[in-house]
């Protein structure tokens, strides 16, 4: 358990955040300037706040009240930056060995061969960073951080400097890191798609304060934390079949779900992010539509916004699905909690980056 309570004043901005991050991958989510990187730098020891306490398990990293301030190299943290920041004069093998060189002798260590295999960098070991793509550099940076035997991994928007193709290449490796390595991860992002795919816990920040905290499906559907246009749902589904026409058939708790071919084997359990503005509601089961996806649920909550919009949340029998519709539509449909309702989702509305493998905590 990572416990963070920090307060620090900058010119025109004050960070005042207090939260506990359970084991797994915790995403600090929010717009630029919300305080995400400041928190990470405080955990890393690169910034000493005006007041605060930070502990990782039984180890206190910082306590301004008692005067505890562990130096950065004593905190045993692996830091993954936006750029790989590899040593250009060293080969990949030597960069990885540099991380292992800092690992305490009595600390639990990852085997070099296992890390190399997990990250798929075996054919890169004799190259230097100048001969690597952006995605390859980030995979090596992940390996170097992991081989330092960290008690915690910090990742500060590690995909921000990559194009969409490289991001798609790296995301599966962070999923593996989340599921296969017993090291807590504090991950900074302003991408809702990354949150939906990677997070086990989300801490949403706004203006230096915690606006919401919880599982990704709960926080991403929180209009107060995400804003009406950013609200979304995270559904869990099992891949049942890949069809010849390029579509994948999934089994969700509320019915079948059809998506453009997903990069997962048949039988795998995945997460799917669905934006609230891409969901249409119907009281009766629709017929004759081009949309392939119709999920049946019960109206759980209706939250009118300040403008003409209303957020309707359906209980799908385990998952929850949010739909952003107009207040006029909600009134015309006579929606009230407890009603059966059908949610229509266009197959092509779900982008590839909104689909990722479910964490190990998700039942299969």
From TrEMBL:
Keywords: ATP-binding, Cell inner membrane, Cell membrane, Membrane, Molybdenum, Nucleotide-binding, Translocase, Transport. It comes from the Bacteria. Pfam families: ABC_tran, TOBE. One of its GO terms (molecular function) is ATP binding. Residues 288-354 form the Mop domain. The keyword Lipid biosynthesis does not apply. The keyword Oxidoreductase does not apply. InterPro entries: AAA+_ATPase, ABC_transporter-like_ATP-bd, ABC_transporter-like_CS, Mo/tungstate-bd_C_term_dom, ModC_ABC_ATP-bd, Molybdenum_import_ModC, Mop_domain, P-loop_NTPase. Residues 1-232 form the ABC transporter domain. Coiled coil: none annotated. This is Molybdenum ABC transporter ATP-binding protein. It comes from Roseovarius ramblicola.
